[in-house]
Structure formats: structure tokens, C-alpha cells
Amino acid sequence: MNTSRAIHSVVGRVATPVSRVSALRCYSALARATMMNRMGGPTTANLAPRTLCATRSQTRSIKTLDFGGTKETVWERADFPREKLQEIFGKDTMTVLGYGPQGRGQSLNMRDNGLKVIIGTRKDGRSWKKAVEDGWQPGKDLFPIEEACDKGTVIMNLLSDAAQSTTWPTVSKYLTPGKTLYFSHGFSVVYKKDTKVIPPKDVDVILCAPKGSGFTVRRLFQDGKGINSSIAVFQDVSGQAQERAQALGIAIGSGYLYKTTFEKEVQSDLVGERGVLMGAIQGLFLAQYEVLRARGHTPSEAFNETVEEGTQSLYPLIGEKGMDWMYSNCSTTAQRGALDWMKPFHDASKPVFEKLYEEVRNGNEARRSIEKNSADNYREELEKELAEINDSEMWRAGRTVRSLRPENQ
Ligand SMILES: NC(=O)c1ccc[n+]([C@@H]2O[C@H](COP(=O)([O-])OP(=O)(O)OC[C@H]3O[C@@H](n4cnc5c(N)ncnc54)[C@H](OP(=O)(O)O)[C@@H]3O)[C@@H](O)[C@H]2O)c1
Questions:
Q1: Entry's NCBIfam families (predicted)?
Q2: Catalytic amino acids?
Q3: Are 108 and 133 in contact (CB under 8 A)?
């Protein structure tokens, strides 16, 4: 982080006088400056508090940061304090459709952020019961899908991607001019030929896609942290869709927001989950485990060396400090080997990633998902495939290893 970025981050342009907001911003600017100082980066200590908070009427300018050499604009909580969320959504009723992990996490966070939220889910389904357990009251802030769509002005479609398609004829009837349609995944809109989800031309259509499960969206928010999310605008009828997407991204509990498009969000999301977030990692785990087992290592040794050491020791450190730090802070033996073997693994997997990206880009992956997931025997076929993973020696060994963790005794 260089000094000019630090200054850019904390010094704002003149805007409307909002004393408490400004005070909070000044405080967070100072806190950030102090934190940067503690982190050992070039300091802002030479910026006197008066420079940071010269007048009570300052607000922060658009924040552009350097991500490894590329400048990107980001938004954070400091950009949308509660008062500003009220200014933007004070007259709105946020209808959250679905109460799966995302519906639950996002709705509870918005409610805690002071917005008027109602839930729409199918009556007496699993989600309905869960919502009641969480204190949502039928007839007050919990309704069947159709009624919730009628009452809401911002329709947040957090049904499963498949259900977004099947319920579209119902939901779309209530998308009257002036309303906002929101998604957390670009899937339904981007693959409209297959999903038939085609928003009417006279509503704003926006997206905020948290980069993680809805459980984490809620848990991090409760811990005072926040999950990073992407935001996008598909249709801007009001002229305010950009700001509403940014504000809503913060209202649902995000940490920082970065800009994308519906297409790019779907592409990166599908590549990520098929790649290093799940598909590739399970493939790599399995390949290494199989080789170790075939060469006579016990399941305990193969599992610890393949999964447990990573998830319990190395990955949390990589999350905290980065892989670059890990490379500089392991044994010289590990360092030599990891440097030498990085390239063969990279070269072997890159063509697979290229192929994966192309399959996502040309829509084959989406078509395959829709086709497979809407088949009549979908559940039975899926159970068979999942059972193969559940019953594999590697993950059975993993259950035993986890049961031996002292905290699980
Ligand atoms: N999971 C993630 O990590 C993640 C991350 C970012 C974005 N997203 C996106 O967020 C959205 C929601 O995802 P999610 O994981 O929270 O939910 P999900 O588990 O995929 O969907 C759950 C909701 O859909 C409802 N539903 C399913 N079939 C239905 C049908 N035929 N009719 C009416 N309702 C139906 C369920 O109600 P019942 O309980 O009644 O079945 C439940 O409320 C999706 O667009 C997803 O792509 C997910």
C-alpha cells in the first residue's frame, strides 16, 4: 500500500453536511490510518487528524484500490451507514423469496440493518417452518410467495435457481413499474433461453452475489465481519440502480463490494465451484490419496497428509497471510519441493481450466445443470453420485480423523 493510496482512501470530496455520518467516517478513516500504521505499511501518521477530517461535511470519494497492478473501484460499509440505507430504502418493502441459506442470511442481516423485510416462501414447506423458528410471523412478515411479491417493492429472488425458473410465471406478474428485481446469481437471467426468466423492461434489475454460503453471510455479519460480494446492474430504469445495488450489497451484510456483470458473475461462479472451490480440489485430494494408498501408506497417513494438514494448518494460514507468505515460511525442504512442483501441476491443470471456462461460456454447463436437475429421477441419480463420495474410503477415513480431534472428543 503506498501513501497516495492511503490518502486517497481516507480523504474525501466535499458533499452534503451530515454531522454524525461524517464523524463516523472521520473516526473510521483515523482507525484505518492507525491500522495501516500497525500493519507496518507506509503510514498516514504524517496526515494530521485535521487533514483526514478537515470539515464535518466531507464524505469519502469513490474508492479505487490497486489489486496487484489493476485499479478497481470498491464499496464498503463506511459508504452506506444505517442512515444512508434508510435514505435509500426507507420507503421500500424488501421481499425475500426463499429462506434457504442465502434467504435466511440476507434477510436477517437486512432486518438488523433497520430495513423493512418480509419473507415469501411456499406455505408449510421446510423454509416456512425455519422462518417461523427464526421469529418471522405468518401474516405479518411471512407470506406465501405470491402475496409477498404483491406486498414488496424490492423483490429479492433467493429461491433455488431451478425454482426461480418454475415460479417465474407467478413472480413476474408482480413486477410492476418502479419495482426492483434482485438476484444473488446471474444464472436465471443470463441463461434465459433455458430458464425463461426474462425481466420486464420497466423494472431495475440488480445483483449482489456473496462469495460464500448464506450461513457465512449471517455468521460473519454477527461477528462484525463481512463476506465479500460482487454487484451488477442488468437494467437501470430508475437511474439509481447502481447506487441501490451498492447499498443493498452492504445492507445484506457484505464486507467489500466489487463490480461485475451478470454474465461475468455466472461465468466466474460456475468456473470457481467446478474448479478450485470444489471440483478440482476433490479431484486433487483423491488423486494424491489414491497414490499414497497404492504405495502402502495407511488411510490415517494418507488422509492427514492430503486433507487434514491442509484444512487444519496450512489453509487457515494461507487465508490469513497468503500463499506467498506460506512459501516464505515453511521448511526449506517443503519450500524447494513446492517451488519445483508448482509448475508441473500448473501446466497439467491449466488446459482443464481452459476447457472448463469454454464449457461455461458456451452455455453447455448451464444446459447440463438445468437438464440434469429437472429430470424426474434427479433425486435418485444425485443420491447415487453423492453416495459414491460419501462412501469412499478417503472421506470415511476423514470422519474417523475428525472424530479424533480433541475438541470433538
Ligand atoms: N449457496 C451459495 O453458496 C450461494 C452463494 C451465492 C449466491 N447463491 C444464490 O442464491 C440463491 C439462493 O441460494 P440458496 O443456496 O440460499 O438456496 P437454495 O438452497 O438453492 O434454495 C432454497 C429455497 O428455494 C425454495 N424452493 C426450492 N424449490 C422450490 C419450488 N419448486 N417452489 C418454491 N420454492 C422452492 C426452498 O423452499 P423450501 O424449503 O420450501 O423447499 C428454499 O426456500 C440462488 O440463486 C443461488 O445461486 C448461492
A1: ilvC
A2: 185
A3: no
Atom of ligand 1 nearest to the CA of 159: 24
Half-sphere exposure of 278 (CA within 13 A, CB side): 8
What phi-psi label fits residue 83: left (phi over 0), alpha (psi between -120 and 50 degrees) or beta?
alpha
pLDDT digits (tens, 9 = 90+) for 228-278: 999 999 999 999 999 999 999 999 999 999 999 999 999 999 999 999 999
- Predicted structure pTM score: 0.84
- 188 C-beta closer than 6 A to ligand 1: no
Instruction: State the Cα angle at 397 between 383 and 401, rounded to 5°.
Output: 120
Q: Is 155 helix (H, G, I), strand (E, B) or coil?
A: strand
CB 255 within 8 A of CB 228: yes
Give Cβ neighbours of residue 42 (< 8 Å, ≥ 6 apart).
1, 2, 3, 6, 36
- 17-74 pLDDT tens trace: 333 333 333 333 333 333 333 333 333 333 333 223 323 334 566 899 999 999 999 9
Distance set, CA 196 to CA 95, 175, 200, 220, 362 (Å): 21, 15, 12, 34, 18
- Does 309 count as an annotated binding residue? yes
Ligand 1, closest atom to CA 188? Answer: 45
Neighbours of 254 (CB within 10 A): 30
Ligand 1, residues 147, 158, 273: which to mutate, most atoms within 8 A of Cβ? 158
Check if the beta carbon of residue 141 is closer than 8 Å to that of residue 118.
yes
Task: Decide: 89 and 154 in contact? Cβ < 8 Å.
Answer: yes
Counting every residue written for the chain, the total comes to 409
Q: Is 81 in the pocket of ligand 1 (CB under 6 A)?
A: no
Enumerate the H helices of 53-100 as residue ranges. 82-89
Which residue is listed with cell 478497481?
A: 72
Helix (H, G, I), strand (E, B) or coil at 40: coil
Spatial separation of the C-alpha atoms in residues 137 and 139, rounded to whole Å: 6
> Distance of alpha carbon 206 from its chain centroid, rounded?
15
Give the span between the Cα atoms of 129 and 139, in whole angstroms.
14
Q: Say how many Å lie between the first and final Cα of the chain, rounded.
A: 44
